[in-house]
Design a protein that fits this description.
- By secondary structure, this protein is an alpha+beta fold.
- Helix content is about 40%, strand content about 15%.
- The strands form two sheets. A four-stranded mixed β-sheet has the order 3-6-5-4. Strands 1-2 form a two-stranded antiparallel ribbon.
- β4 and β5 form a beta hairpin.
- α5 packs across α7.
Length: about 180
Amino acid sequence: MPRVSSVNWGELAMIEMKERGWEAPDREAEYEAWKHDAIKFIDENNLVGGPLHPKQKTIIRELVEYEPNQLLIEKPRPAINDAVVSKTRQVGMSWLLMSIECWLIIFWGPVRILNAHQRFEEVDDGGSKSTIKSLHGRIRDMYDAKIPSWLRHRSKLFFKEGSITNEEGGFISGATATPNVGR
């Protein structure tokens, strides 16, 4: 009997589904729709704890420059604009920004993002065991609990204390805010 060097569990699950007569839905169309529309991805997966409010959608549009329902032919990836946004608890700004970061690292590969706070525990309180009290913990919660399993198999994220990475070299890094943060 030949040895199998690695097992592709997603592929095995698809074979089992076909053997039982279940048809797998077309995930490629859904993937492409979410890749080119952050609002659709965040809203349909309930990443901010409910439907996006109009103000939240406006903030996403201001931060992420792209045209929904268009293939990004001229621009290979969305441009992230610098923005100053008044933080209010009613808007859920930290959840909103973490959902945008989650979308970027899942769909746009080698992104580089820095999250800083005066207390490091507010950025990351445990790596792969982080909680929603920290910014990185919120991304981990979105990824583990809210994003469909087929997408987690397609876009793997790795959570370590102070960083979130993907297979394409992208990362979200955490730091303590100092005068030299990000340098």
